[in-house]
Amino acid sequence: MLIVIGILSVTTLIIWILTPAPLRLELIRAEKGALTVSIDNEGIVRVHDAYVVASPIAATIERIMLRTGDTVTRGDVLAWLLPLPVDLQARDQTLARLQAAQARWSEATLQQREAEIHHDLARQELERQKTLVRDHFISAQALDQLIAREGTSQTAVSTARARTQAAQAAVAEARAAVSTFTRAAQRKIPVLAPASGRVLSVTQQSERTIGAGLPLMTIGDPGQMEAVVDVLSADAIKIQPGMRVLLRDWGGDIPLEARVRLVEPVAFTKISALGIEEQRVNVIADPVGSPWPLGDGYRIQARIVLWQQDAVLKLPGSSVFRVGNHWRIFVAENGRAKERTVTIGQRNRDDVQIISGLREGEQVVRFPSRQVSEGARIIVE
Questions:
Q1: Which of 63, 194, 216, 238 lies deepest, with the highest CB count within 10 Å?
Q2: What contacts 6, CB < 8 A, 6 or more positions away?
Q3: Which of 56-65, 66-75, 161-170 bottoms out in mean pLDDT, i.e. has the lowest?
Q4: What pairs with residue 342 in β-bridges?
Q5: What is the mean pLDDT of residues 161-178?
Q6: Beta strand pairing call for 50-54 and 77-83
């Protein structure tokens, strides 16, 4: 009996030494719940239609009394411009062009008169020769030559009249240029608001000399806002107009609702925080419901919802691993890990949808490591 007991004891000790210890693992229960697949990125809010008001001419601008946030109506005077003093050289050149145009007009008028006199002589000569043809004093061939001469003179008259009209138009143009110099030196020019809204920024506040095309201020309607979110071009392919957008981290507790209106068809290059060049695309979203309590240029965190369902069987993404072309999980059955093949659907950063291969309520290893194998004993942590 002592020998048998010793053999059994040694055998038990050997089995205990060679048998792997149970693995302490965290399990999670497969349950149904809401799953959302989205693209999250930072963006800004801007006025839908912003108008940059610029100076149409080089002038001295009077001090602008409007301030950022002031309300303006379409047609209101935003600023007054006093045209710069006339350039004397340009004025002399304009006067010289007027004198030259008047001289050409006089010349064209004299040429027209000369052509009309020649035409009258040719017509009278033709009438006299027609009488001689009837009396057979000259030939019909000579009459044809007179008819051609009268037609040529008529054409010359028409040409001279056209030159006179052109010269007269040139005189009118030169006079208009001269009068522009005179009017510009005598009156101020108002800059009018192109639309109703509020002043978003004032670029030129103080009185100073500015050039043509220099921006003066920006106006827009804060009630017409839009969200602009730049995403990777690979993600932009998945986004379609009408998709739901949630604006978060804007300062309130409840996300703001929006809908994608436009995915811009052109990408641009942007340097990431790691110094990598990325091709990104702007996604434009319009508000849904009441206007947003945000201003132009406010920062937001946007979540563009690509897919969403309220009741899907899901697991944490860490529970699923790939073997070849198949997805696998470890299910806890009677204290042991059983490897199983599953079919997955949609997935986001945290969870994955399980289409087949798993039932609701079954327990799955949450973080399967290389130590977990088929049939391994497990202990729940």
A1: 216
A2: none
A3: 161-170
A4: 327
A5: 78
A6: unpaired
Q: Which amino acid is at 249?
A: D
**Partner residues linked to 322 by β-bridges:** 327
Angle between helices 88-134 and 140-186 (to 10 degrees): 160
Instruction: Take residue 381 and report the two structure tokens written for it.
Output: 């942590």
Q: Which of 42, 84, 36, 320 is nearest to 184 (CA)?
A: 84
Under CATH, what is the fold of the domain 21-36+310-380? 2.40.420
101-132 tens-digit pLDDT: 888 888 888 888 888 888 888 787 777 777 66
Q: Are 191 and 65 in contact (CB under 8 A)?
A: no
The architecture of the domain spanning 51-76+193-220 is: Beta Barrel (2.40)
User: How far apart (Å, rounded) are the C-alpha atoms in residues 42 and 301?
Assistant: 5
pLDDT at residue 333, rounded to an integer: 86
Tell me the Ramachandran region of residue 162: left when phi exceeds 0, alpha when psi lies from -120 to 50, beta otherwise.
Answer: alpha
Cα 300 from Cα 45, distance rounded (Å): 7
| Domain 39-48+222-309, CATH | 2.40.30.170
User: What's the token pair of residue 227?
Assistant: 């969200």
CA-CA distance, 154 to 144, in Å (whole number)?
15
User: What confidence tens digit (pLDDT) does each residue in 337-381 have?
Assistant: 889 999 999 998 889 999 999 999 899 988 888 878 887 877 776
Q: How confident is the model at residue 5 (pLDDT cuts 50, 70, 90)?
A: confident
The distance in angstroms from the start CA to the end CA of the chain is: 42
